[in-house]
């Protein structure tokens, strides 16, 4: 009877999950089972099933949230590509900001430098007429701090925050709207702040870095819309005042139309699912030049007809600080950023001179590229979380359902039955998530486990890969990155054992003072021989004495015998020549040859110990 109740409870949980029930309803199943007096294995089964159901509901909710964010981003890009009316574009951006961040209110203010005032331009979600009509002196409130510094600022509790200037007009309107937490990002035209885009909640909360970057990306598009409006106004004024300059104005209008069409074309590439090479090809076509795209670390992402492109870090920094494309001799450089976060850069070649319209178009290409990189990162983060969950389950509960782990791996394009190397990395003063993102290029499966970054790679030489990772990641992150490696091995249980060995290798590297290096147990010499899970004596001897053994075999010499006699004679050449029955000069010549084969440091205490241990093992091995 109790087993039947357990089965019924499991079916109830599945039914609740299918209907999208809340966490309280799911938790009630276990509570009902406990209240009914059920105990023992059946109660444990129901409680475990309830815990799994809650975990599944949480995972599904997270995936739905990420899907909603990506949908909102694509909708925003679609609106920007379709709309021409400035007010409609701004209303769309403010509305999307509210949807994307899930806040109570979003709004946009503009600066009037002539009047020295800041006024409300667009609101979404506001219920206060006072708030919707507020005007302020320049520098007041949170927006004043954003405008003065040209940087995003967020406050968890507006009225408790003393970093900015509180005045009666702004405090009264914020209080009337009932706002508490506010995030503001600048609208920039070059280095000039023309307004501020806000997201606000009526309850205290913190804003994540991803939310700041996304709002900043929307603010960049709002600035473009306003810039377009300003340019169109300037054109109309020129038409009214300079009737005789039809030819010049026509050329200006043509440039504007070309810029708009080019911007639409770039946005269309993004909306159709294009990647960085597609955007680079579109930019190269409309600007009639070569384009190279780089990420924030200076790694090339795409190149189209840009044979002479060379990235200048100084030029990227200048473009980032000014918000404009800058010239470097024969090339142009434009920083790609979202708010204060640098995402990469564009280099334009073959166009030593750029008209203002083409320069603006090049800068707009940077904004579109920023949006694309943000979208790619959002998708990559979602995929990385799924891969991280598989890695965690693989290392924490490999025996629970090995078949399910293999199936999940295949869905992610990872065949765990094939040989994989396992690497474990750590770095001081670097968030583990950032280290994992940087290490993603090296493995099929990357995640954080036990406060360390774990990588599964198809690399057949894990020690070499670990050394390469330590060098490259250390340079990229500007800190020591230490990497232990093991494998390659195949199968769930073998991968778990290899992870344990890689973790031991990492601890050994740190204990030996080799922080910032990478390797496997085989690279640790006799320490690796002692700590390794499966001791391979022949491999140790070959890795230590291999060049000498090979030389003797090819030349028919007695370098190994000479080396053995040298150590047995207390590293004394005279005593060694008596053991070998040769002239002391012959011994010296042989020792010189041994040094050229084993390296200049072969007589250092550490290497000497490893070589003598390898000689002893060679003597006793069959």
From TrEMBL:
InterPro entries referenced in this protein's UniProt entry, alphabetically: CdaR-like_regulators (IPR051448), CdaR_GGDEF (IPR041522), GAF (IPR003018), GAF-like_dom_sf (IPR029016), PucR_C-HTH_dom (IPR025736), PucR_C-HTH_sf (IPR042070)
Database matches in Pfam families: GAF, GGDEF_2, HTH_30
All residue ranges annotated as the GAF domain in the record: 85-236
Tree of life domain: Bacteria
Protein name (Swiss-Prot/TrEMBL): GAF domain-containing protein
SMART domains: GAF (SM00065)
Family: Belongs to the CdaR family.
